[in-house]
Amino acid sequence: MHTDRYHDCPQHHVSVTKDCSGVVPDCHGVTQNGSGSSSVTSPALVLVETPNESVCGGTVVSTKMNALWSHVQKAWCPSTSTPTAPSAGTVRAQKASWMFMDTPEDERTKLISCLGAFRQYWSTLPQESHEQCVQWIVRFIHSQHSPKRISFLYDCLAMAVETSLLPPRMVCQALINSETLEWERTQLWALTFKLVRKIIGGVDYKGVRDLIKPVLDKIQTIPNLVSSAVVHQLLPAREVVEYILDRNACLLPAYFAVNEIRKLYPEGQLSHWLLGSLISDFVDSFRPTARINSICGRCSLLPVVNNSGAICNSWKLDPSTLRFPLRGMLPYDKDLFEPQTGLLRYVLEQPYSRDMVCNMLGLNKQYKQRCPVLEEQLVDLVVYAMERSETEEQFDDGGTSQLLWQHLSSQLIFFVLFQFASFPHMVLSLHQKLAGRGLIKGRDHLMWVLLQFISGSIQKNALADFLPVMKLFDLLYPEKECIPVPDINKPQSTHAFAMTCIWIHLNRKAQNDNSKLQIPIPHSLKLHHEFLQQSLRNKSLPMTDYKIALLCNAYSTNSECFTLPMGVLVETIYGNGNVRITLPGTNCVASGSVTPLPMNLLDSLTVHAKMSLIHSIATRVIKLAQAKSSIALAPALVETYSRLLVYMEIESLGIKGFISQLLPNVFKCHAWGILHTLLEMFSYRMHHIQPHYRVQLLSHLHSLAAVPQTNQNQLHLCVESTALRLITALGSSEVQPQFTRFLSDPKTVLSAESEELNRALILTLARATHITDFFTGSDSIQGTWCKDILQTIMNFTPHNWASHTLSCFPAPLQAFFKQNNVPQESRFNLKKNVEEEYRKWKSMTNENDIITHFSMQGSPPLFLCLLWKMLLETDHINQIGFRVLERIGARALVAHVRTFADFLVYEFSTSAGGQQLNKCIEILNDMVWKYNIVTLDRLILCLAMRSHEGNEAQVCYFIIQLLLLKPNDFRNRVSDFVKENAPEHWLQSDWHNKHMTYHKKYPEKLYFEGLAEQVNPPVQLQPQYLPIYFGNVCLRFLPVFDIVIHRFLELLPVSKSLETLLDHLGGLYKFHDRPVTYLYNTLHYYERHLRDRTNLKRKLVHAIMSSLKDNRTPGWCLSETYLKFGMNPRDDNVWIPDDTYYCKLIGRLFVLLPMAGKSPGPFPNCDWRFNEFPNPAAHALHVTCVELMALAVPGKDVGNALLNVVLKSQPLVPRENVTAWMNAIGLVITALPCWSSSSPSSVDTGRCPTGRCPTGRCPTGRCPTGRCPTGRCPQDAAHRTLPHRTLLCWIALEPYWIVLHDRIVSVITSPALTSETEWVGYPFQLLDFTACHQSYSEMYCSYVLALAHAVWHHSSIGQLSLIPKFLSEVLKPLVKTEFQLLYIYHLVGPFFPRFQQERTRCMLEIGVAFYEMLQAVDLHSNHLLYMDPICDFLYHMKYMFTGDSVKDQVEKIICTLRPAMKLRLRFITHISVMEPATAANTATSASQPTTVSSPAPQSGPGPSNIPLSVAQ
Asked: Residue 532 and residue 1051: Cα distance in Å, rounded?
């Protein structure tokens, strides 16, 4: 029997055919002629069959292969030298001679000869033809039917690869991608995959990655049912996959492999049966990596809407699936792949949440894009409201669900208006979900919600879009008899009529469109319809019931019928044209209507009716402004307009029109009275105005201040007071987003003249950057958004800050003002200049010269100082002084007040006391109240904003205290105002009467009237006052009082004075628009100053909260336990709360988060439209933090107690809700102080940052834990390596936060992580908190891990920026074991997406720290059991986040690792493959790290500073 490797039988042969020119074409279309030169012909495959010889197995052999055959023949038969093709007989004879070559040596000789011929031939091919040639060779081989021939040709290919003649990647791709490679040809299949298995080791890792999919695709072609006889022939394909996935072989990063596999087999899809569990086991090996990148209990974490942490990227969802945007193709836990409908529903349910919803789903109002998942959740929310209405007792005001229905109406209008949701789709979906449910008690509310949108949009849209509502009507109104008319004296009657109103609008639309779709009035609604028709015929409509509202709602799209009811509303608030009433001040009269439309009536109007009303009001105001009417607006109109602006659903005509159209038009018309009115409205009546509108108004005000016409006392005072309110009211999380919009021109939001306003803005910047931890870890403002703002302020109004104020600023701001120090005029020079000017005053005789000299622009602003001296020496001021004041003007007078404030401090500092001091106080009081030279609020503001040091600062605050308390003038005003008025203006109908009563008793005099009366001879004044509707000195003083309290807090010696001020004036906070927020900001910003001043904290909290006790329901803020025990003023009996107290306190917030809007809640229901907070959870979070910061126990104890709510077994914390409780704790801790305001250098660095040393000093080595985070304990050898700069990280943390870091350190240093024998079980299971908790097998370390995740998930990016320093300076020196390393990866890994998006620098620092920790673990560990998960995570970190940005640092570290680890990580640094012998030993090697040669350069160019996709 022969052993021919080429033929199945000897008679089969191939022949070589020449073309007509006698040239033999080769396999690439290269022809050779007799001269030996080559020419290129078509590369098309030419197939020729010899007519007189059969072709083996029917295979047709190409003449191109015959050309190569001739080269093979020359190699085997050297005597044959002719360049032409052999004859058929010669070929047959040669083949016969080869049949006897059986020995391996002969086989190898043939291979070598063939390879030599092929090498010569290959070298003649151009580079671009190589791939085509290899593909042709593969096709040729696959065209053979003899396994021996195929085997021999595959051996040739293998040898060509082994000798580097052919690139293995090209050969593997050609083999696998061949269309003729089919599983039915089992022998070819087996031989092919055996060859691939043999040569794939030489393929580069990207090539191996590219081969995975085609290999799996080929396997996928094998049917589920095949003969068992052929299975063994198919197994080589599995062996190839197994080899590729073999982590010890390390052909490519396993991360690449799982990425390709997950694309082919998504979650839940099984792999092919041939692969068995190979694929699933490999994918499962990545579950630890997925868990490292997952936040524990993420699906249970919920935000507080409009809280600073809610605007970050933590809450983003995929807008099409509502899934979390997970990075990489990792096998994350199943719940992370689920749509997060609960999260979106919760947010949607919150009032004022629409911006957050848009942020979560990436919706842009500029682009109309329907979002079906949002639409579905809105529908589900409506169904939920229907369910609540079904179980709720009916009330006249709609019950507790009324707030939810109001909110739903606003949400529906917004999302449908911007086309994020489709109205007809929503109605049809509602019909589908309500069908068969029998939910009809809430049907009127539902129709009311639908009526809101229909009435406002039906005129601009097709009738067909609204007809589905009639299907809903048929479902919800099954009555066969007429529904009776409700009591129209109750506001709920408008809801009962909603369906009838909808039918009227639909019918009107059909009539206007001449549509055939007109629907007859349903029988059940006939009585309602007849009532409306009858009411419309009555021309006299009373305001005592809701008949007007019903008519407005029903006929708002019918101008003929709408005019009557709307005209009654308008006339009610405009007032009779003949009736006039007086307003505060002289010569100020207004139209006579004083009673505004009540909120119940406005709530009963549809959005369309409200839009018509507010449009009518705005049009009238503009018309009066253009006419320059001397009659002021009616108080009823102003109050009603203010109330209408609270409705978010009419924003375009409401606040947007107010800021963008009404204000500019009024200013353009120079209607200063109306302008003053609008600014008063904004100061005292606006609620929940979006920050960009407020900053836009601030910009308008700064422009307005420069206009000459506004240089009059009352308007200038109003402009500055409004600007001050706008600045101080900016939320901490609002400052950066709003001011970064003006970076190109910061001048527009800064005052060019007012030092006080610019100082207020700097204080707001300091507070905002402190609370949001913007400057965490930074020492300079260089490169930040606030640098240009601060620089522009210093150019406009150069100034300094007192050291006690500056010490509270974040360190970068401190550094800025120290570098930009402004020389100050000495008090001695000020005194000298005043004396000089006073001599001039007394020596000058010509009245005109005196007036000109002292009022001239550019003259020293000392005139108030001169008036002071006149009163001090002569006890009177002459008429010239009055004339000078008039000539100076309101704008310039502010500079005089500023200088006067400094002069007062000098005068009081040098006063002899006693009688002289009393005289000074009396004169100062007269200047304010008797002569009306300067208003109290302006003078106090200037005094509070001056930068006095030491004793002079105390004198300054002493003056403030005397001005406010010594005379009775201001105290009486405050007392009477607080006693006679209530802050709930939206519920009042008689505000104007009380307002006028107060002003008659305490008239405002803003034009020096008192001085005009006292001069000799008296000056007759009749100044034209601008209308005052809301303001007075008490309300103007409130934002100034905020600043005064802060200044007093900064200076320890004046604490008692502050307590006195709070006792007498604290009642004013009854009218503060944000009392809890102010208290929260104060306790947060001054935590370090108040830490040891518990009495002052208690006094501050008590003064502000008790001012509201008569206007708030019990339990609205502080807990009953705190009110009972925490307000105890005795120092000898300080109340120490127990664990139960903290559980109950956190429980108040916990109840609100998963059950937002549900009843009953821990806090009383209120109208959130007029509350300082937008929703219950925001209120609960702030009052909880205020109470915690007010406790008379160290912050560290508070922090530990908060952690113990879940870290200790608590009977009040159910196990099944533990992650939700962690969520509440995370919210609270992130809202507490995190980073010290002061620079580290200002802290006593000798103190023990842990607070656990009995002596308080680390160098004693007496830390109870035996570990000193500063590294300065001589006895603590384990921590001597810690760098000294560790101190800065720990000492700057506030005590509320340091406890979490302490717990993490305690876990890292616990035996469970430091000892290999302590840990029982698979570490990744023990670190899977959710699974362990459900199986009652959790450990303390997993609880700390989950709690840290909850805290960090809610953290701002500033707070998260603490992590790199914590890692590198505290944790890194502690990490020695593999378990410690894995724990830290689990701890920090999930937050890489946040760092990448918000602070890349931190991401890169953490990436390097991870490798440095790995290096330490590699050095200290004999065995590494979890190298693969560690490497998988590091590859994920590179390809998803860091890219090559940390390549230089990482390369040096990887080169020092043990060979097995280095082999796995070699693709990160492109280290060349190690020697085979070395690689074989790496899987079990436990030797010390060795050094290898420098890594090979990267194979191809790529981005060095961005993450790489797995495809790169």
From this structure: 68
Average pLDDT in the chain:
84
Asked if 1027 and 591 count as a contact pair (C-beta separation under 8 A), the reply is: no
Q: What is the pLDDT of residue 64?
A: 45
Q: What is the pLDDT of residue 40?
A: 34
d(CA 1202, CA 1195): 11
pLDDT of residue 1236: 58
φ, ψ for residue 39, nearest 5 deg: -135, 150
Q: Over the Cα atoms of the chain, what is R_g?
A: 42
Count CB neighbours of 746 within 10 A: 19
Residue whose tokens read 């939206």: 986
How many angstroms separate the CA atoms of 811 and 769, rounded? 11
If one counts every other C-beta atom within 10 angstroms of the C-beta of residue 899, the result is 20
At 25, which helix (H) or strand (E)?
Answer: strand 24-25
CA 845 to chain centre: 68
- Cross-sheet strand order for the sheet of 38-40: 24-25, 30-32, 38-40
Query: For a pLDDT cut of 90, what percent of the chain falls above it?
Result: 59
621 has a pLDDT exceeding 90: yes
Neighbours of 187 (CB within 10 A): 14
Distance, CA of 974 to CA of 1260 (rounded, Å):
56
Predicted confidence band at 587 (pLDDT cuts at 50, 70, 90)?
confident
* DSSP code per residue over 1435-1466: HHHIIIIITTTTHHHHHHHHTTS-HHHHHHHH
Q: Which residues pair with 632 in a beta bridge?
A: 590
Grouping H, G, I as helix, E, B as strand and the rest as coil, residue 824 is coil
Nearest to 1157, CA basis, from 277, 41, 348, 537:
348
CA distances from 565 to 456, 480, 1065, 1343 (A): 17, 32, 47, 64
Helix/strand/coil (H, E, C) string of 473-513?
HHHHCCCCCCCCCCCCCCCCHHHHCHHHHHHHHHHHHHHHC
Cβ-based neighbour number of residue 1041 at 10 Å = 24
Asked whether the predicted pLDDT for residue 416 surpasses 70, the reply is yes
The secondary structure element, H or E, covering residue 582 is strand 580-582
- DSSP code string of 54-86: PPGGGPPPBHHHHHHHHHHHHHH-TT---SSPP
Q: 598 with 551: CB under 8 angstroms?
A: no
Mean pLDDT of 157-186: 91
Contact in structure between 1132 and 367 (CB atoms under 8 Å): no
pLDDT of residue 1226: 94
- Count H helices and E strands in the chain, helices first: 74, 5
Supply the pLDDT for residue 540. Answer: 84
- DSSP string for 159-187: HHHHTTSS-HHHHHHHHHT-TT--TTSHH
Question: In this structure, what DSSP letter does residue 1499 have?
Answer: S
Convert the pLDDT of each residue in 865-900 to its tens digit. Answer: 999 999 988 888 889 999 999 999 999 999 999 999
User: CA-CA distances (angstroms) from residue 642 to 614, 631, 654, 656, 987?
Assistant: 10, 19, 9, 13, 13
8 Å CB contact between 1442 and 327? no
Between 1050 and 388, whose confidence is greater? 1050
pLDDT at 670 over 90: yes
* Structure tokens, 646: 């609270």
DSSP 1174: S
What pLDDT is recorded for position 128?
87
Q: Which amino acid appears at position 777 of this protein? A: G
DSSP per position, 173-224: HHHHT-TT--TTSHHHHHHHHHHHHHHGGGS-HHHHHHHHHHHHHHHHTS-S
First to last CA, the chain: 54
